[in-house]
Amino acid sequence: MAKDEDVKLVGSWTSPFVMRPRIALNIKSVHYDFIQETFGSKSPLLLQSNPVHKKIPVLIHAGKPIAESSIIVEYIDEFWSSAPSILPSDPYDRALARFWASVVDQKFFTPMKASMGAEGEAKKGLMNQAVEAIGLLEEAFGTLSRGKAFFGGDHIGFVDIAFGSFLGWIRVAEISNGMKLIDAAKTPGLDGWAQRFSAHDAVKDVLPDTAKLLEFSKLLAAKLKEKH
Amino acid sequence: MAKDEDVKLVGSWTSPFVMRPRIALNIKSVHYDFIQETFGSKSPLLLQSNPVHKKIPVLIHAGKPIAESSIIVEYIDEFWSSAPSILPSDPYDRALARFWASVVDQKFFTPMKASMGAEGEAKKGLMNQAVEAIGLLEEAFGTLSRGKAFFGGDHIGFVDIAFGSFLGWIRVAEISNGMKLIDAAKTPGLDGWAQRFSAHDAVKDVLPDTAKLLEFSKLLAAKLKEKH
After folding, report:
1. Which positions fall inside the GST C-terminal domain (chains A, B) (predicted)?
2. Which of B135, B22, A53, A75 is nearest to A86 (CA)?
């Protein structure tokens, strides 16, 4: 079997976590079938391929399922191991990349998501936490990029993919809340980075259209509020 | 500099997350200074070496800090790369190991920890979630071990370390709640595994004494209840 045959990705165009493996597969020039879930329901394929979490994304490679976005991205980097590499080769640099990718999930995504279902002071507090995380990532960009275009240096790497996959949602949040989260004044490093990342060949056709995503976000926010 | 010089681990004997790098360093026969934090306070060294999370464990190798237990274990496996390996070499097997290690944290640790500060029905519900996670891990043991001693096969691997580091706390929870979580009847695979893991040379001097840990757990439970 050719190395890039029989690759399926179960996901949705709206999910930042699904964008991660899509960008990784694009970087490696691997063709894949994108099997989209319907919002609000879970397909038999999803339930069967990720019975523990029942969540997208799931990569199914030659019939073998892999779940959890960061784990899928590492798998893609290891299976299709020829350049460009997504993780650096030095063990300490790899640890730093994994660390900052986990900061994106723990410190940025968690409050950002919770803010969507919140109101008033609670919403403000959660948005402040997300802004604080962006401040940490601005600093990390200075260190990790070493003056180059991306967190990963000259190429898009693990942290770029982890954080960059949220750029569509960041734009939606900026519009919804009437405030900039990433801009030239507060976060000059990330501002330039976001433009370069969004325009990258592996990314530009995967990043969702902001107007369409804004519309979807209203559906999602209504659903999150129902749950509370 | 010799490869195993200048290794410090900031941690505490009570923390399952700190046990992970300790076991990994033992597996690789790397000597390290174990710098213990005092319960209830955070040292300047900890704050300075993990300013983002301010949490143990932190590995400081030749002056460079690395945080987050799973990331540290991967670093140890990659830097001291000679056998025995902690992660398997096949990309799919590596993905499975990372997946099940993350299941330990998300599905077992999260409700287990929350149960310590809870009472009555809430506590029961959380304990049931932890028991359910142990059931998933019993199944995973059957698949991953392929009939051998450990999740990692003949050797202790990534999932063994991730889950095995909780064995001390599991024993404490069994005593506190008057119920077995891992036993020969309900979880025969994990029952034998837990005995083999606890007796392993890289583990036996690191696993905390159950009576001492039980005493400490009472302090911790009181503190968690204060917070609620």
Report:
1. 90-216
2. A75
B63 touches chain A (CB under 8 A): no
Query: Looking at the complex, does the CB of residue B94 fall below 8 Å from at least one CB of chain A?
Result: yes
Can you give the pLDDT at residue A222? 83
Interatomic CA distance for residues A31 and A25, integer angstroms: 7
Tokens 């302090």 belong to B219
pLDDT at res. A228: 60
Query: Residue B67's closest chain A neighbor by CA?
Result: A99
Quick: pLDDT tens for B71-105: 999 999 999 999 899 999 999 999 999 999 999 99
Contacts of A92 in chain B (CB under 8 A): 61, 64, 66, 75, 79
Burial pattern B116-149, b for ≥16 Cβ within 10 A else e, equals: bbbeeeeeeebbebbbebbebbbebbeebbeeeb
Cβ distance A75 to B94 less than 8 Å, yes or no, reads yes
Give this complex's ipTM: 0.95
Rounded distance between C-alpha atoms, residue B208 and residue B12, angstroms: 11
Q: Which CATH architecture has domain A91-227?
A: Up-down Bundle (1.20)
Over the stretch A80-139, which tens digit does the pLDDT of each residue have? 999 899 999 999 999 999 999 999 999 999 999 898 888 899 999 999 999 999 999 999
Domain range list for chain B: 7-79, 91-227
In percent, how much of chain B has pLDDT > 90? 87
Look up residue B65 and give its two tokens: 């800090």
Residue B228 banded pLDDT, cuts 50, 70, 90: low
Q: In this complex, is the C-beta atom of A78 within 8 Å of any C-beta atom belonging to chain B? A: yes
Please write down the long-range contacts of B117-123, taking CB distance under 8 Å and 24 or more positions apart.
B117/B221, B117/B224, B117/B225, B117/B227, B117/B228, B118/B228
pLDDT tens profile B168-220: 999 999 998 899 999 999 999 999 999 999 999 999 999 999 999 999 999 88
φ, ψ (nearest 5 deg) of residue B51:
-65, -25
Return d(Cα B191, Cα B174) in angstroms, integer.
14
**CA gap B50, B226 in Å, rounded:** 26
Which pLDDT does position A140 carry in this prediction? 98
- Beta bridge mates, A191: none
Q: A7-79 domain in CATH 3.30.1360.120?
A: no
Does residue A111 contact residue A144 with C-beta atoms inside 8 Å?
no
When CB atoms are compared, the residue of A52, A66, A96 closest to B136 is A52
Helix ranges restricted to H, A80-209: 91-103, 110-116, 120-145, 158-164, 167-177, 188-199
- Spatial contact of B76 and B60, defined as CB atoms under 8 Å apart: no
Residue A3 has pLDDT above 80, yes or no: no
